[in-house]
Each structure stands twice: as C-alpha cells, then as structure tokens.
Amino acid sequence: MLPPYTVDGQNLAVGSSIGIAVAPTHGTDSSSLLRHADLARLSAKQGGRKYFVYSGEESDKTAHRLALAGDLRSAIPENQIALHYQPKIGMGDDAVCGVEVLSRWNHPEHGMVPPDTFIPIAEQTGFIDPLTRWLLEEAMAQHKTWRSAGYHIPVAVNISAITLHNSHFPEVVAEILTRLDVSATELVLEITESAIMSDVAQAARTVNALTDMGVQFSIDDFGTGYTSFSYIGKLPIREIKVDKSFVFNMLTVNEDAVIVRTIVEMGKILGVNVVAEGVEDEETWHALNALGCTCCQGYFFGKPMSVVDFDAWLEKAEWPVRAEPRIISTPRSPARLRSPAKPGRRLKRLPTTFVVKLLGRIGDRREARRCAVRL
Ligand code: C2E
Ligand code: CA
Ligand code: CA
Predict the structure, then answer these.
(1) At what angle do helices 115-124 and 128-148 cross, to 10 degrees?
(2) 3-class DSSP state for residue 86?
(3) Which atom of ligand 1 is nearest to 243's Cα?
(4) Best label site of 80, 98, 132, 271, fewest CB within 10 Å?
C-alpha cells in the first residue's frame, strides 16, 4: 500500500479496485462488458480485494447496490431520507434523557432501505460526510422545535469512522450549531470503538476539539470489538452504550449478564454514563436499574419513530420529558491522547484490574464465563 497523501491537512489513502469482464464469456458488446466489469469492481471493493473477475452469481446483489449507490445522491433533495427518533429513558426519574437519530431511506422503487444497507454504501461512495452534515442540521433544528414546545431533549447522531477522521468535521459541527443557535451540550455524537481504533490519533483530535466546544461523546456497540479499553480513560467520553446483543438475553444467558454487569461496573469506576440499548421488556429494564445503569433504550420504551409519531408518543406522556436541562457535571478532563499509547502500558491506568481483564476478553464468551467466577 502506498502511504496516504496529505491534502489540506487531511490524510487521504488512495486505493484501487479492479473489475474484470472478458469477451465473449461475459458479454459480446461494449456496454454489457463495461456493466459487468463495473459490477466486478464493486464486488472487489466490497470484499476488500484488489481485483475481481465478473461472475454472474453475485451480480443481482451487487447490481442492486450499484443502483442504490447511484440513487443515494438524489435521496436528500427528493425528500427520501427521514430522521427517526428513538427515546432514551433515564434511570431514577424515568424521564426521557435524550433521543437517538436513526435514518431511514424510503426508496421510491425498493421501499424502506435499512441504514445497515445504505450507510455502508454512503461510506463507500464518499456521500457519508454530506449526509451526516444534513442529518446534523435536521436533528439540531428538530431539537430547537421541541425546545420551543417546552421539551428539553438532547439529540444523539451516529457518526461513521470516515466522518470522525475528517479533520474539518469539528468546523462543520461548529458552523451548524452557531447558525442554528443551539448549545453544543445538546448534541451527542455516537461513535464506535472500531472507528476510534482505526486512527486513534485523529479520532482523539476530533473528539477533543468537539468536546472543547461542549459536544458529548458516546461509545456505541460497546463490548463487541477486540480493542484496548484504555482510550476510555484518556478520551473525554461521556457515555458508553452496551450493545443490544448482550442486553437481549441478559436474563437468561449468564455470560451476557456478566458482560452487562461488568460494563456497568466499569462505567461506575471510570465515571461515565452507561446506556443499555435493546431493552425489550420490563424485567430487563428493572434488572438494568438494579445494576445501576444510567439510561435505557429499546422497544420497551419506544421504537425509532418518525417525528409525527414521536410527537404523539411525547403527548401520551407515559415517560415525562424535562423542560430544562439536567445539571450536567463537567466532563472528566483526562490526559489528552495525542498519539496512541504504548502497548502493554495501557491497562495500568485503570483502577480495577479484574474488570479490565474481563472486558478485554468480552469477545470470547468462554473466557467471560471463566472470569465470571472472579466477580
Ligand atoms: P445502532 O447505532 O447500534 O442503532 C441501534 C439499532 O438497534 C437501530 O437499528 C435500532 O432500531 C435498533 N434497536 C433499538 N432498540 C431495539 C430493541 O429493543 N430491539 C431491537 N431488536 N432493535 C433495537 P437501525 O435503525 O436499523 O440502525 C442500524 C444501524 O445503522 C445503527 O446501529 C447505526 O450503526 C446505523 N445508522 C442508523 N442511522 C445512522 C445514521 O444516521 N448515520 C450513521 N453513520 N449510521 C446510522
Ligand atoms: Ca447508535
Ligand atoms: Ca448500538
């Protein structure tokens, strides 16, 4: 791999994917050969390979993705992308402590395209930054609308690794917040462990710059990756979200219960809020409450809803909403991470070693079960 180019302060890694179609096996005219070569190129890109020879077998799926990629750019101007909002409920007062924005693409031909499908396409086609900018604007405008209706609802937006590593992203956020006159403390950005770990130094620069403005950070899908947990002690992270795959069966599968409990304990030790996602029933909610989880999110409280449905959900007032912000303590001021810490020295910074050891092995459930004996 060639080293990345630095353009305008941004590291650009240039790669190539080659698609091959051979005449007459894969077509006898130029247009079908080019189309099949293009499909093969997309297969190579998706599979992380340098080249791919066209094979009719995967063409349907790839052709569908190629067509979606072409349609995605017009999706915003044609009002096909909608923001859906899922409530987060705080423990203690059982009040709404925020919402997460989950985007939906209502394709005119294919119907509802899930974000798990179109977000990776947006990432691959360079559309993720403009999409995220637009989502942030819409989300902050919605926050203001709720505020003037007497509801104080901080809004969380999911941020892809590509956007997190864009050195201009903090300026983009600052511009939106200033233009819409929204306090940065009302915005939560959900990022994943893998996004941080793919370029720790750049992630630290972005997170630090935005935290200095008042924006809050949440680590999404926590516990699903094999990563060093040391960054949590070094980055100004406000909350971690326990992945729903652990929450779904925590009442019946001991390993999952141990993982959830350990993450909650770690949150307490490090002084970060712990949000459990995927709460689908009352029993799980009570169990998480007993563990000392800060906040819950899941179908039990409400599915992701269009703004119309969310407003109706608010009106029902089953879960109250504050009119004013909660008093928020200043985020911890961890030692700033300017460059990745040396391997081997990382975990020493964390105070409770058995928790750290267990977390380091969360990806391996058998190990988690073995370690559970020590809790
Ligand atoms: P995520 O950020 O982990 O979001 C949580 C996912 O779990 C959402 O799926 C949500 O609908 C679902 N969920 C929440 N509570 C429950 C529950 O109780 N039970 C079950 N079965 N599912 C629950 P969704 O909306 O399909 O989003 C999937 C993923 O797509 C998100 O995972 C996020 O990574 C990504 N995504 C969605 N919207 C955006 C976006 O605007 N930008 C970016 N970059 N990614 C997005
Ligand atoms: Ca999320
Ligand atoms: Ca998640």
Answers:
(1) 130
(2) strand
(3) 3
(4) 271
Per domain, the residue ranges of the chain are 15-69, 76-332
Q: Which residues line ligand 1 (CB under 6 A)?
A: 86, 101-103, 114-116, 119, 135, 158, 160, 190, 220-221, 244, 277-280, 297-299, 304
CA neighbor of 232 nearest in space, from 188, 276, 266: 266
User: Which stretches does DSSP call E strand in 226-351?
Assistant: 239-242, 273-277, 295-297
Point out the ligand 1 atom lying closest to the alpha carbon of residue 83: 41
For the segment 82-127, what is each residue's pLDDT rounded down to a tens digit?
A: 999 999 999 988 999 999 999 999 999 999 999 999 999 999 888 9
- 74: which residues sit within 8 A by CB, 6+ positions away? 80
Angle between helices 353-360 and 254-270 (to 10 degrees): 130
Radius of gyration of the chain (CA): 22
Domain 76-332 fold is: TIM Barrel (3.20.20)
Tokens of 314: 């608010």
Residue nearest to atom 2 of ligand 1 (CA): 158
**Cα dist. 86→41, 259, 300, 311 in Å?**
37, 24, 11, 11
How large is the average pLDDT for residues 363-368? 44
165: pLDDT strictly greater than 50: yes
